[in-house]
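Form 7-S
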Amino acid sequence: MSYEWILFDLDETLFDFKMSEARALAYVLASLNLDPEDASITDCYNRINKGLWKELEQGLINSTELKVERFRRFFLEQKLNEDAQAVSDRYIQSLSEQSFVFEGALELCQYLKENGYRIAAITNGIKQVQFGRLNRSALKDFFEAVIVSEDTGFQKPQTGIFEHAFAQIGSADKEKMLMVGDSLTSDIQGGNNVGINTCWYNPNRLPNPTGIVPTHEIHQLDELKSILTRSKVKA
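Output:
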């Protein structure tokens, strides 16, 4: 099977989202006169945020609700009287300005372009954040399409976001597509749901207890080159 389209997840696949998130959160906490170094405070926010993103993945909440609800719940737990909407807006703006590309991501995109592959992104997230970070990075000109869940009304692993992507890139040839991402439950399950091959980016060599089976697994981004080379030979 020779691939034509490489469909990338963005967060924790090409971009260090955890670093962006930590910096934006530190900025917001400081603006509220809270200590960004206090683990009890950051752990509280991160627990709430992670739970809400799981709810989003399951279709129990939408991204508009998530943006504000995480701060509303955080303020309730911290017994703070703050405007969740205003703080959410401040956080989103800061997050959209944080752009940290993983080592090897630029080189991989250059390799793909030089070798005739076409690149698109399918990402769960907030449009302002995803485009803000992408447009500040050296990767911005490599993508022919960027499909963000907030725009589509669907999120990975739902098939709707993938069908939207296929329409946007103008291709329905699933045998020519490869989904690459770090999340088994969104990227890999989503690719499996829609019938395209998948590549699990697993830099920390985590175990897979989920029963979700990727077509390929890599531990460094440049290992994708070997998979693509082998697929050409087999084709």
